[in-house]
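Let us practice reading a record.
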Amino acid sequence: MSTKAVRTSDPTSDAGVARVDMKFEIVVIPVSDVDCAKEFYGRLGWRLDADYDSGKDFRVIQFTPPGSGCSIIFGKNVTPAAPGSAQGLYLIVSDIQAARKALLDRGIEVSEVFHDAAGVYAGTDEPYLFGRARVSGPDAEHRSYRSFASFHDPDGNGWLFQEITARLPGRIDPATTTFASANDLASAFRRAAAAHGKHEERTGGQRDENWPDWYAAYMVAEQAGAELPQ
């Protein structure tokens, strides 16, 4: 009788096992010049959380992007990875044009907004890797997961902005809808307002006195990837 463990992706197989929360919080970025990297990530507008120097050939710096639950660390003798080898680092934004402009205003070089000619783009910042081809401009239908912009730090570590306004079904629990920042919440309100305007047009142009309930239902459904109210 075999005793080889068999892995399964079926979540019901763990029904009797207590769930342990595992929060992904740190990504290590390999850099060659610690002070140059510190200046760059500070210029992005990211929060400096720590700069610890042991004075004994060890230094670690931590930054956190606005609204992010995950931080980056880099430093001296932090990782054996080659500087610039971190690629395909995704930054999720609700308005890619605004995110791109924010970096340009800070003097950071950013690519134009693009989408993948073949469909959903995923992976590193190499435009023709695996046969992918970039198409200039955002996704024509402004669908979530489809529009990108890229930039690099001084060592060449590659970052991608990805615009997401509505998550795929099942990714967010509607009962725990949250927004990472005031900007994300404001953007969600604007999308709900635009959709509600179309809703009022469909219902004869009469003012909807229950618009707060409609907005709330729309914003929760959008984030959860559920069917949007009409």
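A brief commentary: The chain has a mean pLDDT of 81.
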